[in-house]
Design brief:
The chain has 10 helices and 12 strands. With 282 residues, it is of the alpha/beta class. 33% of the residues are buried. The structure holds ligand C2E and magnesium ion (3 copies). This is EAL domain-containing protein.
Length: 282
């Protein structure tokens, strides 16, 4: 092994590590450029969430997409993490907020009443300036905080409890609703969540994708649903890919479902078509 020496560290040279480092650097550079440019490299897609009682759309999750001329499609899981590390997440979230709220205003104009759920990263919920911006953009669009849901990943909340709770409480007092995303992956308990101003949990898709055939997942999901009912929490299942999983969730009292079985995430114009023709649409 060849070793690389710098002033601060020494590692054994590994081609895969170098490749990852180069990719991370390229993503950072390209993302900075994409945020500054007027071309539509970044876009939002929306995935319907269905109220299990009525089997109609109640909400849409807003998910960011990035297509780059050199890199192709970059998954949000990958570039959001890099944006956080590179100090770019505030810019990314600002872009997401502007786009999502403008689309939400458009859908309200068209007469649709569903809410839109936006994902916030851990740094966002500690950024008071950014949260104030969110309130301003929403007010500027003539929309109330109740028309937006904010999704926060469970592990982020466990990691940064105190300041996050303060900001969450302040936003809740202004009428915002929060959901705990990827529930089951962050080692929190429902008892712990009871102390947070949160009314909704989203069971992570890793427990849902194979639900119909996996007895362990079935036990876990039933246990979560049982406890959630006791704690008066609304439960969303993400990653519903087949009819049998949907039927189980329905039978066990899950409140809301989201997944490829209902619809994949769709760009605004495709979503409009979907809303015109889907049996899940009002
Ligand atoms: P998430 O918030 O948990 O979003 C759900 C993810 O599950 C989405 O992946 C969605 O496309 C995917 N999904 C939904 N139903 C199914 C299904 O039936 N099967 C499978 N296999 N997957 C399904 P996506 O869009 O790749 O996003 C990944 C993650 O990236 C999100 O997880 C979220 O943590 C993050 N993310 C996406 N957009 C944003 C954003 O605008 N801001 C921030 N901060 N994070 C975002
Ligand atoms: Mg989410
Ligand atoms: Mg997530
Ligand atoms: Mg998830």
């Amino acid at each position: 092994d060849e070793a690389i020496h710098t002033g601060h560290w020494c590692v054994h040279y590994r081609p895969d590590l170098e490749a990852r480092y180069v990719r991370r650097l390229t993503i950072t550079t390209e993302l900075k450029r994409a945020l500054a440019s007027k071309q539509n490299e970044l876009s939002m897609v929306y995935q319907p969430k269905i109220d299990v009682q009525t089997m109609k759309v109640c909400s849409m999750e807003a998910l960011i997409r990035w297509n780059n001329a050199n890199l192709g499609f970059i998954p949000p899981d990958e570039f959001i993490t890099i944006a956080e590390q590179a100090g770019l997440i505030e810019q990314v979230t600002t872009w997401v907020m502007n786009q999502t709220i403008s689309d939400l205003a458009y859908f309200r104009q068209q007469g649709y009443e569903f809410t839109v759920a936006m994902n916030l990263s851990t740094q966002d919920i500690q950024n008071k300036k950014l949260l104030d911006k969110l309130v301003r953009i929403l007010a500027g669009a003539g929309l109330s905080p109740a028309s937006l849901e904010l999704e926060i990943t469970e592990s982020d909340l466990v990691a940064d409890a105190s300041l996050a709770i303060e900001n969450l409480s302040s936003l809740t007092a202004q009428g915002f609703h929060f959901a705990i995303d990827d529930f089951g992956t962050g080692y929190s308990s429902l008892a712990y969540l009871k102390n947070l101003p949160v009314k909704t949990i989203k069971i992570d898709k890793s427990f849902i994708l194979a639900l119909a055939n996996d007895k362990d997942d079935q036990q876990i999901v039933r246990a979560v649903l049982g406890l959630a009912t006791a704690f008066d929490l609304k439960v969303v299942a993400e990653g519903v890919e087949d009819k049998d999983s949907l039927a189980m969730l329905q039978q066990w009292g899950c409140d809301v479902v989201q997944g490829y079985y209902i619809s994949r995430p769709l760009a605004r114009s495709n979503l409009e078509e979907w809303l015109h023709s889907s049996p899940y649409s009002n």
